[in-house]
Amino acid sequence: ASIQFVDPRTWSSSTSVAHYSLRHAFLQQRPPRMLPCQSLTSDMNYIRRRTLTFVSPLSFDEYLLTSRQFSNVRYAAPPVGDLRFAAPQVPAVNRSVVQRGDVGRICAQGSSDWFTAELSVVPDLLSGNSASINVSEATKTLQDLRAQTSAQVAANSSALLANQDPRVSEDCLFLDVFAPKDAFDLAGKGYGSPVMVYIHGGGFASGSKADTDPTSLLDQAKVDGEDIVFVTINYRLGAFGWLSGPEFQASGGIANAGLHDQRLALEWVQKNIHLFGGDPNRVTIMGSSAGASSVLHQITAYGGKKSPAPFAQAILESPGFAPMPSAIQQQKTFDQYMSYLNVTSLTDARQLPSQALLAANSLSIALAPFGSFGYSIAVDGDFVPALPGQLLANGFYDKSIKNIMTGHALNEALGFTDPTTQNDTAFRKSVIGNFPSLAAYPDKVDYIVNTLYPPIFDGSQAQNYTTQLLRASAFNSEVSLTCSNYYLNKAFANSSYDYEFAVPPSLHVASSASIFTPTNVLRGNMTSNIDWKSPLDDAQIAYAMQSYVTRFVATGNPNKDGIAEFGIYGGDNSVIVVNTTGIVGARASVANERCDFWRKGLFY
């Protein structure tokens, strides 16, 4: 079976959410649209401008948005040579060269074979026919892909780079700034617009700052009465950004280099955003998927010891990461990458040509276990002193942060769950695969598979699962995705807002379909009297979600007149559920004993 992915600019029905979710979850390597740019050096006296006019396709034709875009602004020195695998450094000032912004750069990219194989079962996942998946065919597809990858590498170690995006470079630490004209023209005149810094997703293995077009969101901000200055950043991916472990760090490597990249970019924003009309005291960071889990770790950075944070608020959509607190696990990942490079030390790796490092990175991601992209955030005793759930529970996070907004879909992990998980034995194997230390504690495994996620398929258990695959999906979702929102909201209860996005099929990052809906979908007068508790179409849902985001960024409160009320999380775990049947208040589905159990981090 195959599926056609619809251009989101042609969306006209609720299926748009499914297509967008899959496009982001399965096709992040698509070539992004390159926009015209302005240019910027490290000093605004060395600026070469080109005005970029966005003609909004929004039906509110009076809101034509003239904006200034600054593309490919360097925020860090090239992380090459001795700076490979090291903390990012502030770039040297070179006033003899103007950054034209016309050369796009993205960081090392990779795609897992299991991810490609999963595409073969997407139609069944979308239709709700997970029980009809041909297990043997799915297994063979993945085996064939892995064999093909191995054969390619055996024949030529650089074979995986044959179709590499020409923009890929180790020298990739750049950002883009979108400054609406009115905000830009007020720069230096005593007023600054709110700022959103967006951290892209992609499983810490793929994606770039070019993946997200903020035009529609900026349009909505203007409709809502206040411009937003939008910043999107690159950060190192794969082995370049996420190696860790005792040997790696003892050899001069910096664990979680990608988090340090993000932090340096946020510090750049603090120092420079006023030049674009933004207010450094009104910065909201937002991320989706791996980007959202990055935001989570920016909130708990250094256990809160380096407060205040270089941002005031945060939005997290579907925060996803596979926890990696074990030094043994971190060392194993490092050793594997060294073996692909055919070297024995980080010093040797730093001497290799870039193509060798890129090829080994692609191979390590391609052969990653099902549901993993090979690399993730690691507990390092510094930036990440412990798992974020534990840090939040014990008050070790940055308390200068004012407000939080979180969200997740109902079937977050379905696209990342091995479709061959069709019986109790396979489910038990999946649990141990996530937590290898559990193999020595069969009684603990029994508790997980019989009490937390019992073989009861009447819809009464976690995420209302009715099949073995949905049972495994519920387990994966809570362990790696949705419980993180619960931990955050418990810590920020009286200054946080949480939504559950239930528009079918409600896959990973599904709400992005609404938050970044192209503005031509928003037709008619969306501010008319809408009954938000009755059936809603795509445009109405998108209008609500965009307004929630823009009002939160501008004021710290997502509410405004004419939109369904978005209540504070509070002590009663209140959320809103967004669906085609309406937007209603409810109790958080992730406020449960299972998330309390996983927060303890007993088996990592």
UniProtKB/TrEMBL annotation:
Gene3D superfamilies: alpha/beta hydrolase
Enzyme Commission code(s) on record: 3.1.1.-
Domain Carboxylesterase type B, first and last residues per copy: 67-598
Broad EC category: hydrolase
Chain ranges passing through the membrane: none
Name of one Pfam family that matches: COesterase
Keyword Hydrolase: yes
Recorded GO MF terms: hydrolase activity
Key words, A-Z: Hydrolase
Record PROSITE patterns: CARBOXYLESTERASE_B_1 (PS00122), CARBOXYLESTERASE_B_2 (PS00941)
Family: Belongs to the type-B carboxylesterase/lipase family.
Name assigned to this protein: Carboxylic ester hydrolase
